[in-house]
Amino acid sequence: MSLPARLQAASSEYQRLQTDLSNAVEARQRLDAQLSENELVNKEFATLTPNNVVFKLVGPVLVKQDQVEAKSNVNKRLEFIRGEIKRIEAQIEEIEQKSEKKKIELVELQTELQERQKQDGSGGSAS
């Protein structure tokens, strides 16, 4: 593969990695929002007495729900969200590492291309 073609391929790969990173960061932010929301609900549950009634929004309707079941659902959701955050953070770390390697490769390829262009421009032998 020619040097310009390798540079183009590396550049495309780097752009793809940056897009993947952006998507992963957005997913992490959404999970943070969900985590905060569910932690707030969990704190509210702590203030309930056994006589309080809990409702769940199902479509446009509020449906009465058992307190124990509602608390269990929120705890399961919190556990799931925390697990997803760990998974996304690992994914972000991996993408950042790949991106940094690709960035170094791009710089090396650009430098090599510039050096070849200087040699070709100064009357040096063609490669």
TrEMBL record:
Gene Ontology molecular functions: protein-folding chaperone binding; unfolded protein binding
Pfam families per record: Prefoldin_2
The protein's name: Prefoldin subunit 6
GO cellular component, one term: prefoldin complex
One GO term of the biological process aspect: chaperone-mediated protein complex assembly
Source species of the chain: Russula ochroleuca
Domain of life: Eukaryota
Keywords: Chaperone, Coiled coil
Keyword Coiled coil: yes
Claim: DNA-binding is one of the keywords in the record: no
Family, per entry: Belongs to the prefoldin subunit beta family.
Coiled-coil region(s): 7-44, 71-119
